[in-house]
């Protein structure tokens, strides 16, 4: 098992990519804390993991629970995020701040809280979920979503450099369009769906498990010499 003996906290772990990561981590031997504001969905993931013999606990985004419940914290996946659409001139300050708070400030606060616990554990791995739109611009999203995801990319690199000597690694993952509840509305519109797929060389949306495998690699000791890096899983979007 690739995460045997490790304790992992996954923010936004109640559905979509976060839920896929939580289930995969549990299958690979981790004790998983599922952090989210979606309590019923989070409890359902917790129950599914337990039914298959894994160990998981749902909590409303509390890093301290990992140490209290399982004795340590080895892995943090900052997965929680929200999206938006709109042009720069039509975007309100309130809308800008909301997306930045969740997508960028949330990653900062999660990392800030987890680092002391990882230090006590002798090291750890922080995996920040950014986006392919944290690397390139586009005309079909909001100004704040790429800005927030670009901030995650560079925050990851600073974290990696500052804590490398303490054995705490930090890397970012950059998914392209993925089949999740966040993309459901846009996928349901035929014109929007075709537009999105036309920009993906592999010609389809990705699946949550395809991202989870990348996160698993970065969380595991297999990536012990990887820090400050970005792993892109976008079907070729940014290769163009």
Summarize, please.
With 240 residues, the protein is of the alpha/beta class. It contains eight helices and seven strands; from the N terminus they run βαβαβαβαβαβαααβ.
Question: What is the secondary structure topology, with strand pairs?
Answer:
Elements: E1 7-11, H1 16-27, E2 31-35, H2 39-51, E3 55-59, H3 64-70, E4 75-78, H4 93-121, E5 124-129, H5 144-163, E6 168-175, H6 184-188, H7 190-198, H8 208-219, E7 230-233
Parallel strand pairs: 1-2, 1-4, 2-3, 4-5, 5-6, 6-7
Describe the structure in your own words.
- The structure is a single chain.
- Helix content is 45%, strand content 15%.
- It is α/β, with parallel strands linked by helices.
- Strands 3-2-1-4-5-6-7 form a 7-stranded parallel β-sheet, with helices on both faces.
- Helix 1 packs across helix 8 and helix 4 (93-121) runs parallel beside helix 5 (144-163).
- The chain is globular.
- The model has no long low-confidence stretch (mean pLDDT 95).
List keywords for this structure.
single chain; 240 residues; 7-stranded parallel beta sheet; globular
Strand content: 15-25%
* Strand order of the biggest β-sheet: 3-2-1-4-5-6-7
Order of helices and strands: EHEHEHEHEHEHHHE
Shape: globular
| Structural class by helix and strand composition | alpha/beta
Query: Averaged pLDDT, please?
Result: 95
Summarize the main sheet: 7 strands, parallel
Distance between the termini: 37 Å
Low-confidence stretches: none
Give the helix proportion (percent range). 40-55%
Task: Please count the beta strands (DSSP E, at least 2 residues each).
Answer: 7
Counted by DSSP, the helix tally is 8
Radius of gyration: 17 Å
Q: Oligomerization state of this entry?
A: single chain
